């Protein structure tokens, strides 16, 4: 829940999404051909929401996140699309078309990043406070002295004592390092934080810290988050809406309850079917048959068709368009209840996002 005091401000009542991704394409040139890692993605992020980006390894999640952050480097390149960010207090910007100076002024202040394996991104030979000051002085408006003074309170916001500022990374536990990384990501009060696999490779206790801290941030600061993870249990605990990616495309977007109670796309059904249920009825996990395809040679038609147990003749030749399924309630949101599957051809209305 967004903090009610923040929810009444214009920032949090705006109907226009914070981020709109339109037909984004990101390819890699490789010796064995062009890898179409992200191949026509449409997505929106609302203000103050936590959007989960799900899908198995290699489906393009990190490439999509990297494109939003301006981090795609050769052999990767942006092959097409638009990424419109509406930073608070500034004109909207297309993140794919801004110059380096504008992008620098947006990073950390409006858009920040918790990278995959972020615990290792702290500099081992610098005190925590100096790492904050470097980021804040370069991207913010405060002087180094002013930035230094705010570090203890930033650490307190993520449940750490102010004394942690004077410590070196090796003096911190895994959970403390994760909190430091989160505090750094929110140091300049960004509109949007993108966290790539924030819980992967962490022990269960540190995972819990990470999930609780991220959820509290949204509640307290109203910051929007994109949580990129293949771990459906993290989506279930943390996010509001889930966008499911398969083979470089988004195939379903729905509220988290809808996704878990009534997944529509056969691929999403497979992802949910593969989650073990604690205390639930003992049955064989269904999962998804076959292997993920290569981005150098996506299957024709619906890219999921070689693995789909519901496949229809049309699936082999025609790419299913995104449709909105009207089922009432929250699902009537224009960016929810979306599915790209021929099974729903008669049930939904065509949408471009
Ligand atoms: N630098 C690169 N050069 C060539 N191909 C790449 C490069 N980076 C990623 N790819 C390819 O792009 C596809 C998407 O990769 P990406 O890392 O975005 O997937 P992901 O969904 O984040 O996977 P994971 O869950 O394993 O992190 C993969 O097939 C990958 O091999
Ligand atoms: S479009 Fe066809 S192959 Fe693809 S998920 Fe739907 S039923 Fe399966
Ligand atoms: Mg990844």
Keywords, please?
353 residues, alpha/beta, 9-stranded mixed beta sheet, 4-stranded antiparallel beta sheet, 11 helices, 28% helix, binds adenosine-5'-triphosphate, binds iron/sulfur cluster, binds magnesium ion
Topology overview:
Layout: H1 4-7, H2 10-13, E1 19-30, E2 33-45, E3 50-54, H3 61-68, E4 76-85, E5 93-94, H4 100-106, E6 111-114, H5 128-139, H6 144-157, H7 174-185, E7 192-196, H8 204-221, E8 224-228, H9 232-238, E9 241-246, E10 249-255, H10 256-261, H11 266-273, E11 323-325, E12 338-339, E13 348-350
Parallel strand pairs: 3-8, 3-9, 6-7, 7-8
Antiparallel strand pairs: 1-2, 1-4, 4-5, 9-10, 10-12, 11-12, 11-13
Bound molecules: adenosine-5'-triphosphate, iron/sulfur cluster and magnesium ion (MG).
């Amino acid at each position: 829940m967004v903090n009610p005091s923040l929810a009444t401000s214009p920032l949090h009542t705006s109907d226009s999404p914070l981020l709109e991704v339109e037909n984004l394409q990101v390819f890699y040139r490789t010796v064995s051909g062009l890898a179409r890692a992200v191949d026509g993605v449409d997505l929106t992020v609302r203000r103050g929401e936590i959007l989960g980006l799900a899908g198995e390894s290699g489906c393009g999640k990190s490439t999509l996140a990297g494109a939003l952050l301006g981090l795609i480097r050769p052999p990767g390149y942006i092959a097409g699309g638009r990424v419109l960010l509406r930073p608070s207090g500034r004109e909207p910007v297309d993140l794919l078309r801004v110059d380096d100076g504008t992008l620098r002024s947006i990073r950390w202040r409006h858009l920040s990043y918790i990278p995959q394996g972020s615990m290792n991104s702290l500099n081992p030979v610098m005190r925590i406070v100096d790492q904050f000051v470097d980021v804040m002085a370069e991207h913010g408006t405060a002087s180094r002295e002013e930035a230094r003074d705010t570090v203890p309170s930033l650490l307190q916001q993520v449940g750490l004592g102010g004394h942690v500022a004077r410590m070196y990374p090796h003096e911190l536990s895994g959970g403390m390092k994760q909190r430091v990384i989160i505090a750094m990501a929110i140091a300049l009060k960004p509109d949007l934080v993108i966290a790539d696999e924030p819980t992967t490779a962490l022990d269960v206790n540190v995972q819990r810290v990470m999930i609780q801290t991220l959820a509290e941030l949204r509640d307290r600061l109203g910051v929007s988050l994109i949580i990129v993870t293949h771990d459906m249990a993290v989506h279930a605990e943390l996010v509001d809406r889930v966008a499911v990616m398969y083979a470089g495309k988004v195939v379903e977007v729905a509220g988290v309850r809808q996704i878990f109670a009534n997944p529509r796309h056969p691929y999403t059904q497979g992802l949910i079917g593969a989650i073990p249920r604690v205390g639930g009825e003992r049955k064989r996990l269904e999962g998804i048959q076959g292997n993920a395809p290569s981005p150098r040679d996506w299957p024709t038609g619906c890219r999921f068709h070689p693995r789909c147990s519901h496949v229809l003749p049309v699936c082999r030749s025609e790419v299913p368009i995104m449709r909105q399924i009207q089922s009432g309630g929250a699902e009537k949101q224009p960016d929810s209840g979306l599915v790209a599957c021929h099974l729903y051809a008669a049930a939904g209305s065509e949408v471009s996002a």
